[in-house]
Amino acid sequence: MTNPMPARVLERLKGLRSSMHPSGVFTSDFSVNEFLLVRKAGFEPVGLCVGSCVYHVGIQYRSWSKNQELEVLSKAMYHARELAMSRMRAEATAMGADGIVGVKLTIKRMAWDDHMLEFIALGTGVVHAEGHPGFRAHDGGPFTSDLSGQDFWSLLHAGYRPVEMVMGSCVYHVAHRGMFATVASAGSNVELENYTAAMYEAREIAIDRMQAEASAAKAEGVVGLDIHEGSHGWETHVIEFFAIGTAVLPLAQELAPEKIADPIMVLSVND
């Protein structure tokens, strides 16, 4: 898509609330609790940010008996997510947001083609209530984070801020076991070492790539790390490991965590 900001998107963004348009409305996918805690942290929601990419994932031939990364597929999955993320971030920039909270990355298989996937990035653009510029990413654009509203408040209260959502992907072919090896272990309690080695290496590759992104973002560390596994309809023995988390940095000195208001705790009597 050569134009990352279609006319329909620009029309929607015009209706959002801002300092120049106080009569507009904000939109978000926050729960009520998330909404309140994000505001307690000193931020206001601006609007829902969405990025989409429909991608044709190619094929790669592999050895039946070899553990190996399928680099063509790894690059495709990574590139498609990057396109969706960049379009979501472009919407945040257009609405004047300082960052995006609660980013969700999802993949949907298109019914009309087995090799076609839609990658969707969705989160809520937020702006600092006092206009402080110290929350933006290292490139001056909006920060991105997959933290919930509650975790976002807790992170700031602990003296850290989100910088960038970082990720790493590895699509891996797990070697098949030969007939003799299968028969030899039948009925026995025994580790299947080739499977162990494959799963171990694939996860390590994904985590290492995520760490490299955090280093490039000049972050101090990564919080909320999660590793997702999925086959996305590929053949058996092909699996993707996807590592994702939020890179963080300490707050600037003038943004002391003591300035962040504590929430009022309420005990729910509902089941």
Highlighted features:
271 residues; alpha+beta; Translation Initiation Factor IF3; four-stranded antiparallel beta sheet; globular; UPF0145_YbjQ-like
Note down, in words, how this protein is organized:
- The chain has helices at 7-14, 32-40, 71-94, 149-157, 179-185, 193-216, and strands spanning 43-56, 68-69, 99-109, 116-128, 143-144, 160-173, 221-230, 238-250.
- The protein is built from six helices and eight strands, in the order ααββαβββαβααββ.
- Strand 3 and strand 4 (116-128) form a beta hairpin.
- The protein is α+β, with helices and mostly antiparallel strands.
- The protein is 30% helix and 29% strand.
- It has one domain (7-12, 25-253): Hypothetical protein apc22750. Chain B (Translation Initiation Factor IF3, 2-Layer Sandwich), CATH 3.30.110.
- The strands form two sheets. A four-stranded mixed beta sheet has the order 1-4-3-5.
- The model has no long low-confidence stretch (mean pLDDT 84).
- Helix 2 packs parallel to helix 4 (149-157).
- InterPro entries: UPF0145_dom_sf, UPF0145_YbjQ-like.
- Belongs to the UPF0145 family.
- Based on secondary structure, the structural category is alpha+beta
Corresponding CATH superfamily: Hypothetical protein apc22750. Chain B
State the total count of DSSP E strands.
8
Instruction: Report low-confidence residues grouped into runs of 5 or more.
Output: none
Share of helix, binned: 25-40%
Q: Predict the CATH topology.
A: Translation Initiation Factor IF3
The shape is globular
Secondary-structure arrangement, i.e. CATH architecture: 2-Layer Sandwich
What string, H for helix and E for strand, traces the elements in order? HHEEHEEEHEHHEE
Estimated share of beta-strand residues:
25-35%
Main sheet strand line-up: 1-4-3-5
Terminal Cα separation, in Å?
Answer: 47 Å
Rg, rounded, reads: 22 Å
